[in-house]
Design a protein that fits this description.
The chain is mainly beta. It has 2 domains: 9-65 and 130-164, Chitinase A, domain 3, CATH 3.10.50; 74-122, Thrombin, subunit H. Helices cover 15% and strands 37% of the residues. It has 4 helices and 9 strands; from the N terminus they run βββαβαβββββαα. The chain has helices at 45-51, 66-70, 146-151, 158-164, and strands at residues 9-19, 25-28, 33-36, 59-65, 78-82, 96-100, 106-114, 118-122, 131-143. The strands form 2 sheets. Strands 1, 2, 3, 4 and 9 form a 5-stranded antiparallel β-sheet that branches. A 4-stranded antiparallel β-sheet has the order 5-8-7-6, with no helix packed on it. The longest helix has 7 residues, at 45-51. The radius of gyration is 19 Å and the shape is elongated. Mean pLDDT is 86; it is low at 157-171.
Length: 171
């Protein structure tokens, strides 16, 4: 009998997020993500609802308006400085720099542009302003153990599952 995704079922899946306009893959999992359906909030509510009733081998695509998840792009979070004012460790495209404000709140900024004279960092989520498609493939559906229900995921991969945790899509 084919098992379907419902509460307290252990589900393992792969996913990728692509830009709807360009087709560019924005994010993908390297290893399958395992979670207990209905026992934790690894995935956004919209995605969880779409997975309900699916079985092994099912593939689904969910359009995502990233502005609804991360808010609209905020140009005040983009800063450009002379490259000599930036420590050498941060002078690489794609580097994440964690900055702290006077209140102690932190925000990640990503190095998005470098030229011979300047370096630009952006504190917006990389998905802001994009329309994306979340593509998932269901690999495993089975009854979850009591321990898995308690943990919200695979006991063997509890730490990995937490590290894959996302509110669709990922950062």
């Amino acid at each position: 009998m084919t098992q379907t995704i419902k509460d307290n079922m252990f589900v393992e899946l792969t996913y990728k997020v692509t830009d709807k306009k360009t087709g560019q893959v924005l994010s993908a999992v390297e290893f399958p993500l395992g979670y207990v359906h209905g026992a934790n909030q690894v995935l956004a509510e919209d995605v969880t609802a779409e997975l309900e009733g699916k079985t092994v081998g099912d593939r689904i695509e969910i359009p995502i308006d990233c502005d609804k998840i991360y808010g609209p792009r905020d140009e005040s979070l983009v800063f450009t400085d002379r490259i000599e004012n930036v420590p050498e460790d941060y002078r690489e495209l794609g580097t994440t720099i964690t900055m702290e404000n006077e209140k102690g709140d932190t925000r990640n900024f990503i190095v998005t542009r470098i030229d011979e004279e300047t370096l630009t960092v952006d504190g917006n989520n990389p998905l802001c302003g994009r329309e994306a498609v979340f593509q998932l493939e269901v690999l495993t559906v089975r009854e979850a153990t009591e321990e898995e229900i308690e943990e919200g995921g695979s006991i063997d991969n509890a730490e990995a599952d937490v590290n894959h945790s996302l509110k669709v899509p990922l950062e």
